[in-house]
Amino acid sequence: MDGKAILDGLEKAVISGNKNDAVKYAKDALTAGVKALDAIDNGLVKGMTIVGDKYAKHEYFLPQVLLAANAMYGGLDILLPHIPKADAAKKVVGVIGVVEGDVHDIGKNIVKTMLTAAGLDMHDFGKDVPIENFVNSVKNQKANLIAMSTLMTPTMDGMKAVVDGLIENGDRMKVKIIIGGAPTSQAFADDIGADMHAINAQEAVKKVKEVL
Amino acid sequence: MAEKMTHIQRCLASLADEPVDRLTVYPIACGVSRRTIGDGTMTYKEWCSSPKNYAQGLISGQKYFDLDFTVGLMDLSVIAGDFGSHVRMDEQNTPFVDDPVIKTVEDYETLQMPDPKKGRSGVILEGTKIFAEALKNETITSGFLEGPLLSLTQSASAEKVFMDMYNNRSAVHKALGTFTDYLKEMVKGMGQAKPAACMWDYLWGSYSCLGDKEYDEFEGQHKYAGSLNEAVGKEGMALAIHNCADLPHLDAQVKQMKPAVYTMAWYPLIPGSPSASDAIGKGYADNCVLCGTIDPQGFVRWSQEKMQKVTMNLIQEVKTALCARGLKSRYTIASGCEVPPTVTTRLENIKEVSDTVKKYGQVTC
Which fold has domain B7-360? Predict the structure, then answer.
């Protein structure tokens, strides 16, 4: 199978949410000598970008987006270990998580997927994430971006605690902060000293790309 | 100044789109109403664990804020918890599921229906009976239940359910059938509690989440929501629906399900999210009282002056849209979703909405 057919296969596997195919074509790519970064950018990410566009146009809905993300991560698991260290080091590092006291993570997972597809090296802290994990992420993960979400009102103040913690430890100016989730807004982001607010994954990618 | 109509007269007139002395008002103040009891220190946990406390909060809140409706919304982890999910119950935070009962495909199929009279479902049924009886001559009362798809996503995590809609379709349907059977029992219990209405939370009917086809298959169709809506009518209650999603399936949930009351939110930053005037203008209030759309966060973060201004603007928008549509009163000035039950919610902002509608809510076309 030639390189183009493999890249097409990766793209279609993501668009159709077929993880088995994504894994198969990722392995085929390595066997056929396609560069891992090429397979990611021109196969998996190309497919995920199309999925994101379809979601924005309400042609795809959450089930299809989640299955596509699952397929993309299946392919990434095979390909990422084969990216040369020099290329990997060039990537912008982001950490993402749902703040402490909240476990609603479906929106966070979609934002993580789209930021990964946009080329960021995303570290997923998961849900109900202690404040100090975000605060220490500049040192521990070399984060350039902190992305936080919550769906619940009482946990919104955890976002402010993260910003305050970063100011206190001297890392605030080394990182951009984006927040999201139903109760949040740009006004709230301004109030707590975050850099950006996004209403959905597409906007998050757009805003992050503008500043990083 | 004494008002010309009682709460019940006004609500009934609004349901029939007859002239009213002013628009109806109902900021969805449920859990937060516990703070109107005594010294205001009752915790959320104390409120949601006792039928007496739950009812007392709602009764007290109705009087304190002088509301036209009373709805028994608790939180969205009630049914999942009663089915065996672990619910994290912090003192003042809204409880939530932190360990869902459904983890495998087999779990969907082996789900066991609990006794609806036990657990927090039992608190709701018993508490609804108390507040419905206490307020039957004061306001229109409504019980509140999570819909089957919401009950399932709380019990299995939304992400898992959405992926299994394609990967393990029959298992998802089996679980939805179990929840629907359980909810039919809950509706019978509601019928015995005798609120005037029963409100479903059908929040997955959102174009941010599901398309028409998926929503119909996994909730909207007759064997799920359709049969539950019918059961509400058979028990002598009016049908009400709550959906605080950004892009609600208004055709399915208003025009097809035909509720008497529909409460909705508005997300101005989301393209296509329907505002009050959009929804009225497109005919969704022609046969249904629409309620909304004040941002619930405003009750925590806005000054009283800003809340008054927002409420006045909404009243004006609604009046203009009603008159343009040839309607008289089929809209309730309400919050788009529940007023946050947190301790930082400003009670004076809830009262401000009520007072502003009394002052400026007269409709003359």
Answer: TIM Barrel (3.20.20)
